[in-house]
Amino acid sequence: MRYFRVVLAIVAMVLVGCNAQQNVLYLQDIESGTEITLPENYLIRIKPHDQITVVVNSKNPELAMPFNSSTSYNALTGTSSATAATESSLQVLTVDDKGYITMPIIGKVKCEGLTREELATEIEGIIRKEGYIQDPHVNVRFAELTVSVVGEVTKPGRYNINKDQITIFEALALAGDMTIYGSRDNVAVVRERDGKSVITKLDLRSAECFSSPCFYLEQNDVIIVSPNKYKAATAEINQNRSFWISLASTAISLATLVLTVLK
To answer: Kindly report the CA angle at 239 between 222 and 251, in degrees rounded to 5?
Structure first.
């Protein structure tokens, strides 16, 4: 009987271990060497309310000065109060509700839906077409590009992105990865689209997550990692335990008070 109990305990431990692996491992249905086709050139694109900086350069810096937001240009005298735009002095341009930015000299430029490089090419084309500069070189950067990760991760928070492409796995890595209590089959990405919040669920245990529209993240996405059933159950038990302990403590205090009054 004792031998049977030992064997039973070992089998139970093995089964629990296998079940634990299924709960915490990523991409369980992918074999080593499997090739997965990803969307090509998936880069973050400009949206309304994004904040960007635009710097125009030329072999003749004097010609480029009026186009740079950081330069104070006097249209009457044709003189500038600065000789160059530095990163610390750049004026941040906010994309309006219709997807435009307003630049010095050339005015409104449509930028919604474009990548940084595409917008730079568009601005260069406008400057050449209008005959302002023959050799413009434009550099466009996001002034603020972030994603937020909350829930069952090691370091919840808002994180800056320093490149134009980021996957959900990279964002989780920024947050120190999920805790062992994170539900890997129920990760939600909240994305603003046309004034509405769109929620997409991903199962990071499966290769199907690669085909999700939220595998590659966009600016201001929020990743929500829900607790698994074990963490949720533990929290409920602890909450109920705290309630009954508090209730018992209150009852004892009232009983003590009543006895004191009766004496």
So the answer is: 150
